[in-house]
Amino acid sequence: xxxxxxxxxxxxxxxxxxxxxxxxxxxxxxxxxxxxxxxxxxxxxxxxxxxxxxxxxxxxxxxxxxxxxxxxxxxxxxxxxxxxxxxxxxxxxxxxxxxxxxxxxxxxxxxxxxxxxxxxxxxxxxxxxxxxxxxxxxxxxxxxxxxxxxxxxxxxxxxxxxxxxxxxxxxxxxxxxxxxxxxxxxxxxxxxxxxxxxxxxxxxxxxxxxxxxxxxxxxxxxxxxxxxxxxxxxxxxxxxxxxxxxxxxxxxxxxxxxxxxxxxxxxxxxxxxxxxxxxxxxxxxxxxxxxxxxxxxxxxxxxxxxxxxxxxxxxxxxxxxxxxxxxxxxxxxxxxxxxxxxxxxxxxxxxxxxxxxxxxxxxxxxxxxxxxxxxxxxxxxxxxxxxxxxxxxxxxxxxxxxxxxxxxxxxxxxxxxxxxxxxxxxxxxxxxxxxxxxxxxxxxxxxxxxxxxxxxxxxxxxxxxxxxxxxxxxxxxxxxxxxxxxxxxxx
Length: 491
Ligand SMILES: Nc1ncnc2c1ncn2[C@@H]1O[C@H](COP(=O)(O)OP(=O)(O)OP(=O)(O)O)[C@@H](O)[C@H]1O
Ligand SMILES: [Mg+2]
Description:
With 491 residues, the chain is α/β, with parallel strands linked by helices. Adenosine-5'-triphosphate (ATP) is lined by residues 14, 17, 19, 37, 39-45, 86, 383, 393-398, 426.
């Protein structure tokens, strides 16, 4: 079948980074074509080129066999090419409806037709299965709902080509299966779909064809049926991967974190303990209150009742400064909102929580700081031309790695909470992060892992607590925990 769109021999360079090295890619009507590769391999760059959002130095862009001039996102949208980006691109202060029809509000004689806008929005919202009032301000929605608004926007453009860059990274299992239903329906209607994901089960569940990028070059395009997981990983990583989970068990030491009867506006009566050297997991559906427990413990949300002790010392309520001083660290879930400092370089983003370690009499010792940061950046294989590179120019997964490096640099930590630590992280780096967490536990750190991925919790944790509606509904020891039991407690 003739491709709907086709990229041929695309070369793209950024200062210091050769992002795409002569890549060929095409999309046929009625197929899901998955694009996979490690963090920084060039997937998002290829997508931005398809979308007309970035230029390229060399190569050809064809639509239905003919050379096409796509130089702006408007050009692409006009030709029926719509993109749901990896990082949410919504205007938080505008309504859901205004976001969906941004730049295309229905109007007559210069006046916006609000009634029609809300009607049209309600229609596409129904298509994606999001039950919100179109007049709701986007800032009031959770990440998952915001992602669905992006998808609704893409659909409202009558897309013939729909591009999705890690669309499920913030969705719950039921939202994911609804999204899959939608993708399959669109495929049946003849839409060409480019799908990017680090979750291999998704690739095998959805894709008709798979293209693998490694280091900016295409290493393979093949039918999904001709691949299995091991082969696909081999193509992506280019070397054999060791064990995914390498958790070594040790008896827990002294209590590192003790939480008793903690309540905030979002969680009720939370009690649990993490010993030095233990990894304790939090499972549950999106919105069950897992992140909110972390926020309550760290003093980011107001504590209404309960006690928290860190390393045996009482943590006063509502004091983030005290939490830090006693050795609590957090790798947050929403890196764009609360994690990174987009204007700063990779090095400063990594060292910002550990500056006092590198200062003497009030002066930062730049040399020692750079050395320590460079070691972590190497260890996590962060792909960056230099430590001075602005973090916002890194690929999504590499930004996440820098956030993890930030907490690995801190020496005085007693407890580290990691919220969705491998979201957007490729398989190779994922195994490395699991190894690191195990190593940290081995050094006596208490770890709390919040995750929506059950295999991750089962592979890593000594104990898993399950939450629902702001409360802990059960606790399973490693030996007795299974996916089924975790789900039963979460539902
Ligand atoms: N605007 C930019 N300026 C400089 N370098 C960039 C820019 N955008 C991307 N890069 C670099 O280009 C390379 C490819 O990045 P890209 O975002 O395409 O990777 P990716 O495959 O989408 O990775 P991930 O899985 O982490 O999302 C990376 O090394 C990245 O740091
Ligand atoms: Mg990307």
